[in-house]
Every structure is written in structure tokens, then in C-alpha cells.
Amino acid sequence: MDIQLQQVSYAYAKGTPFEKQALHEVDLTIKSGTFQAIIGHTGSGKSTILLHFNGLLKPSSGTVKIGDRIIEAGKKAKDLKTVRQKVGIVFQFPEHQLFEETVLKDIMFGPMNFGVSEEEAEKRARELISLVGLPEEILDKSPFDLSGGQMRRVAIAGVLAMDPEVIVLDEPTAGLDPRGQKEIMDLFYTLHKERGLTTILVTHSMEDAARYADSVAIMHEGRCVLTGDPRTIFSDRQTLAQFRLEPPRIVRFQHQVEKMMGKTLAKVCLTEEE
Ligand code: ADP
Questions:
Q1: Who lines ligand 1 at CB under 6 A?
Q2: At residue 51, does pLDDT exceed 90?
Q3: DSSP 3-state assignment of 243?
Q4: What is the pTM of this model?
Q5: Sheet holding 215-220: strands in order across?
Q6: Which of 26, 39, 47 to mutate to test the pocket of ligand 1 (most atoms within 8 A of CB)?
Q7: Tell me, what's the pLDDT at 74?
Q8: Percentage of the chain surpassing pLDDT 70?
Q9: How far apart are CA 25 and CA 255, in angstroms?
Q10: How far is the CA of 75 from the CAs of 100, 126, 176, 226, in angstroms?
Q11: Is the ipTM of this complex over 0.95?
């Protein structure tokens, strides 16, 4: 399922003295099956754009196409429920949204709310818990008895239980230690590859964007100023500096590594260190 933003503008508190134009005529196409990173300085519009990917925000002008659904300014959007099932958002600190008595009930909540049978929802929960790297016994525990990293995995399983085609990640590694960060990003990368999930990653981490993405979009002052493959984007230090972005430290491009079947490790030599 492709996602396409055409000339999307968005203003918060439109028509009030507090009006804030957060997006300006953004054009961005995310092809089905790609891993798209969105980077940009704080306040550049990343979170605002993210909320357009499943209709949580409607453009003030322009059009958002999500598969064959169209959300456009001034028109009532049809079938948003389907859009929200197909596009799952993992918000920052998703563990804050856990609330059920047990992990099992928490994972089952979303799909059951969308009309999936109890039996099917439980089946999904049991499959997903191991997929996110947790033991099945955890399903009977209270989510609040788990560690932070475990809670985050449970919250991710809850989003996956909706069986989305697209997953949108808002700073998914925030607050984790470096090892936890790598584990969570490797998990998303594996899900992307094995389940064919279109993945949209909003991140401050240039390293994660370089390492995992097929395509990188730079947001700057509410505009999508540049898109391209990570190798090209991150090799151009001058452009990065223009948008107040630091180039990543040395990275390997995982997908390129895979393409080369492990024979040669591709890397961008941005610093001397290894
Ligand atoms: P980013 O995620 O890149 O930090 P945001 O999308 O959060 O950027 O913000 C883009 C602009 O919109 C910023 O100037 C921000 O201050 C403003 N903004 C964000 N949320 C709101 C809001 N709820 N009300 C008013 N302005 C907002």
C-alpha cells in the first residue's frame, strides 16, 4: 500500500490568533514495502506529518492518499477505521499506553475493538509475543510488573496485533540504553523484512536512518526539502549542515550488506573511526 502526500499543508489552531503553520505544501511518496526514514531538526514538522499517515490529522490543504483511500482538505474522510487498522503508529514511549490487567488482554484489546474474534485475537497475541522476543509466560503478567524494555515490546505487539500493512515509528528508541536501542531497531528491521511491512521511521538518529532506511526524507521548517537514498543524503555534509543536521558516525548500510550477500560490507566513511 503506497502512501502519498500531495501538496499537504497543515496549520494548528487555524483561524485563531495562535495559528501555527506546521506543514507547507509537502510532497512525499512512500512506496509499499519500503523503509522510509524522516529526519529533521526539532520543530521541523516530523510529528505533524506522522499524524497524517493514518488520518489522525487532516490536511488544511492538499491530499493524503493511503492505498486507495483519499483524505483531503474540506471533505469528510471515508472509512478511517480501515485506514487506522492498516497503518499502525507506535508513538513515543508506547508503554505509557498499556492499561489492561494482563499483557494478553492488552495485546488483544486493539484487534477486539476492531471486531476481531476473541479466539483470533488471542492467537495473534500468542504468536506476536515470541516475535517481539518475549517468553509466552509473560502473557499472564501485569504489564506494570515488566521492565521498561519489555513493556515497550508488549506495546509494539499490541500495534502489530492489528495486522497493519504499514507501521509508523515515532522515535521508537527514545529513553532506551544503546543496547536496547539496537535490539528494538533490529526487531523493526526484521519485521519489515519478514512481514513485508512498509516502515516509516521518524527519528533524530542519523545512524538509524542511515543503517535501516531505503529512503530518507529531510524535513525543514515544515517543508520536505530533500528525499533520497541514505548513501547520497548522508554523503552530502554541506546540505546536512544547511538543515542543521549532523552527519552520522560511520555506519554500515544493512540492506546494501544484504544485497551483497555478506561478501563485502558497504559503509560510508564519514569519520575515521570504526
Ligand atoms: P517535530 O516533530 O519535527 O519536532 P512538530 O511537527 O512537532 O515538529 O512541530 C512543527 C511545528 O508545529 C513547530 O513549530 C511546533 O511548535 C508546532 N506545533 C506542534 N504541535 C502543535 C500544537 N499542538 N499546537 C500548535 N503548534 C504546534
A1: 12-13, 20, 22, 40, 42-48
A2: yes
A3: coil
A4: 0.90
A5: 87-90, 166-170, 198-202, 35-40, 215-220, 223-228
A6: 47
A7: 83
A8: 91
A9: 31
A10: 36, 40, 41, 29
A11: yes
